[in-house]
Design goal:
Belongs to the bZIP family. Helix content is 86%, strand content 0%. The chain has 108 residues and is an all-alpha fold. It has a domain of 75 residues. The longest helix has 82 residues. It starts with a helix and ends with a helix. 0% of the residues are buried.
Length: 108
Amino acid sequence: MSQKLSLQERPESNEEDDRKVRRREKNRVAAQRSRKKQTQKADKLHEEYESLEQENTSLKREIVKLTDEMKHLSEVLKDHEKICPLLHCTMNFVTVPRPDALASCLPR
């Protein structure tokens, strides 16, 4: 009789084993999918990082270029202010300049 009981338990055991195998396989596939998704996310973040680094470098170069241009133009303006007759003309303090008065400030 103990053999009979053992035989009856076996089919249930086989079913449980099959369920365990299916569950493990399903879990293995899910874990692979999760790892793949995580890797893709990390790759995407790395690409975005690289792109932002390039943009940052480009913007820093542009800042240097524009700063140099601003310094140059400031010097040009400073030099021009020294010789500009309009800045030294007393007529600049008149609220409404007349064309003939303005003409007197210009070099001939």
